[in-house]
Amino acid sequence: MKSARLLAMGLVVSGLVACASTRPVLYPNTHYLSVGKNVAERDIEDCIQLAKAAGARESGGRSGNVASSTVIGGGAGAASGAVGGAITGSPGTGAMVGAASGATYGFLRSILSPARSSQPNPAFANFVNRCLQEKGYEVTGWQ
Question: What residue stretch is flagged as signal peptide (predicted)?
Answer without folding.
Answer: 1-20
